[in-house]
Amino acid sequence: MDDLETRELRYFTAVAETLHFGRAAERLGIAQPPLSRAIAQLERRLGVQLLDRNRRGVALTEAGRVLLRESRLALAAVAAAARRTRRAGDSQLVLVTKAGASHALLQRLLNAPAAPPVEILLCEVGEQAGLLRDGSADVAIMHHPYDDLAGFDTEELQVEGQVAILPAAHPLAAREALTLAEVSDVPDLPIARWPRLDGSYPDGPGPEVRTQSKLAQLVALGRTLLVIPASSRAWQWPEHVAVPVFDAPAVTTMLAWPSTSRSPKVAAFVRAAVTLRAAA
Amino acid sequence: MDDLETRELRYFTAVAETLHFGRAAERLGIAQPPLSRAIAQLERRLGVQLLDRNRRGVALTEAGRVLLRESRLALAAVAAAARRTRRAGDSQLVLVTKAGASHALLQRLLNAPAAPPVEILLCEVGEQAGLLRDGSADVAIMHHPYDDLAGFDTEELQVEGQVAILPAAHPLAAREALTLAEVSDVPDLPIARWPRLDGSYPDGPGPEVRTQSKLAQLVALGRTLLVIPASSRAWQWPEHVAVPVFDAPAVTTMLAWPSTSRSPKVAAFVRAAVTLRAAA
DNA sequence: CCGCTGTGATACCCACCGGGTATTACGCTG
DNA sequence: CAGCGTAATACCCGGTGGGTATCACAGCGG
Lengths: 280, 280
Hints:
flat; five-stranded mixed sheet; homodimer; 9 helices; DNA-binding; alpha+beta
């Protein structure tokens, strides 16, 4: 059985993501004909049709969709192998967290007596899983139920309520507390839309956002509101007001790491975090 | 940044597992010099020394050990991509289970009204995780705490006590019940030793076993005993006697599947299994 | 209806590199 | 010091991955 090469997977993901041989080739830095040939060869070797090339364009078949999913995971695993090997000697551990989340908690973690040296990597919402999977980070701070924890081992750090972040000028900003029903259906403050994993946006009235800073800007301008864990209030501006949302589901801040990890660095850090939590 | 190719990972794992360039090359079906060259090139590209080639033989460095672990995972992910793509169209689902475990439960699962068509794959103890990871199977029956469930989503199927399997001729076989202390330290019936993930055996007085059938044989011959979940009694022979072990930890039979799975086949099967459990 | 445009497939060539054989270098051991 | 077992080096060759040029074809506008 001839195994696939990562080159083939990279080529296929490029085509599958762009649905265009020419642009995919450009992205890969090769010419279009070799790419066509490589994909055709891949289909022959797998014995499955991956793409429908009919009138005006390319579409994924069912098998193609499966391979796209699996290719991303496999390529992340290969990249992880390289990164983790390069960093094998480092005593330093890389922790990734969403920009602006859980400042105080993180501070306590880093100052814990038993904690090993830690390098902090900041990312945007929803990017932690990918960075853990591809070996860019050893451990992440994630939030249940916001983040997808599939494939990770976790340790609970804290549980907290959520607050609504509103423009200071808005009538609702004066309230002592709010309910989910009140904030989820404010006509002049539609909830912002985050990109899905594939980069596309769900439908809806709210503005499209991709980064926290852009979101903060939009709130300050009175264009949207959001509901976030209380500890994430760190990044609010003078133009923002935070109001507790009574019936919002509790958010659990968790330490997460690949369940396949056997790294002593990670184990030591998690142990330090757990004893810290016990002491608190 | 130049990515690694699966060929390089295959080559490295071969060398790392044999610790011998010549034999590794033979296993790979290539000559020794190109293999040496490929490994040297890999070390150059990663910028890390993977092997110590000093006096009389090869040893893994710390980085080498990391890469060996990661390579196995990455290669399994690539193989999984190929297998799952080939089987994308199949409506049939592949379920893997240890030979001889939980007959009755499995029977009920397969006969469940909502269950999709299922192909059964039998494997030896501890092999389920690998078969799930490399895409040979979609879902597995595993036993907590015996099996390593890292990286899998699970659904509990049943909880049960454990029994000791003894040679019928042994004095302990006449007892109504036993304790862990009694069975864990019987001088003439040392507990058998299973291979670790890397194929080596732990130290100890018991015989080395690799397959269930060999183990059954050894018990029948009066050379060892074992403690297993009550539902696994299916494979006992006339020469075997099962005696409940009161204080042995309870064993949970679980349905497990890769937490990255998004397959509707798997989802349907799990749903069927859960409703079945609820009905029982 | 015809050419234009934008697309992927084909044809063909070249150069690189992965793999082979032969040999060397080196360390241990008798 | 000779002999063996090992990995590294030297060198050559062929396959294949990549390039350019071109084709085939479908939609579409004039």
